[in-house]
Amino acid sequence: MVIKEAKFLMSNTKVEQCPAPTMPEYAFIGRSNVGKSSLINMLTEQKGLAKTSAQPGKTQLINHFLINDSWYLVDLPGYGYAKVSKGAREDWRKMINYYFQNRENLACVFVLIDSRHEPLKQDLDFINYLGNLGVPFVLVFTKADKQSSVKTDSTIAAYKRKLRETWDELPHIFVTSSEKRVGREELLNFIEEVNGQ
Ligand code: GTP
Ligand code: MG
Hints:
By secondary structure, the chain is of the alpha/beta class. It is built from five helices and seven strands, in the order ββαββαβαβαβα. The protein has one domain: P-loop containing nucleotide triphosphate hydrolases (Rossmann fold, 3-Layer(aba) Sandwich).
């Protein structure tokens, strides 16, 4: 798929204030700093479209981007940032939970996972939570440029082993590097396919 146009629409904390749910929507989530905003910029080929930062916790709201006037990309705030207060973490949990349970045009969630790390409880818990909600999702292993493909493969294999303990069917898996533009075609083709369904 070719991205002809990508524009920022709005930031919200409330699903009711999000753009009308008339087009399919793809949401990016994962631990703080995993590379959600960078991946949106890589896919749309617009460096500053989603705000990125080396400091975790940059994205705080539900951010909608309109692509080719026909579908939405959504940048969500990450989880797992240690410096966040208990209250703020609870607010995040409520906002995200409400979003996943009520956003009727949600076509698929991209759960981003840092390809450098062995399976983390926070990520596994989040995947299991989505699976139990019945929300369609895929796994996206990020920052593949940071280590050898052997290491990335071993991280993925470890996640698969863990997930098989709970689930019969495994989600679709992508490997990306926003730095090296790895995985762009694969993700865009996937979106095109889901849009066409
Ligand atoms: P929050 O909004 O804070 O939850 O973070 P985020 O998940 O949106 O991460 P963001 O895209 O802001 O990236 C975090 C840091 O990781 C930045 O310093 C990015 O430059 C870096 N980064 C993101 N993706 C990649 C990648 O594919 N390769 C490398 N080497 N660095 C990356
Ligand atoms: Mg971000």
